[in-house]
Amino acid sequence: AVLRTxxxxxxxxxxxxxxxxxxxxxxxxxxxxxQLTTRGRALAPVLVEVVDAQYTITMNGRYLWFLRxxx
Length: 71
Fold this sequence. Notes:
The chain has 71 residues and is mainly β. The protein has one helix spanning 29-38, and strands spanning 2-10, 19-24, 41-51, 57-68.
């Protein structure tokens, strides 16, 4: 996998411990699987959110990964 682009927006200063979550863009999951199966490669957007101890969103990000099936 190779990171193609990243877009990050810092929303608020963090207070205390941080927790991050990441997920594939739900709209593109089926298309991603199909592209990997048929073409052996795909662009996969991953959405990331970081919250602090008070569950305040401190950062949102979108990372676009280039994936290739390794044979």
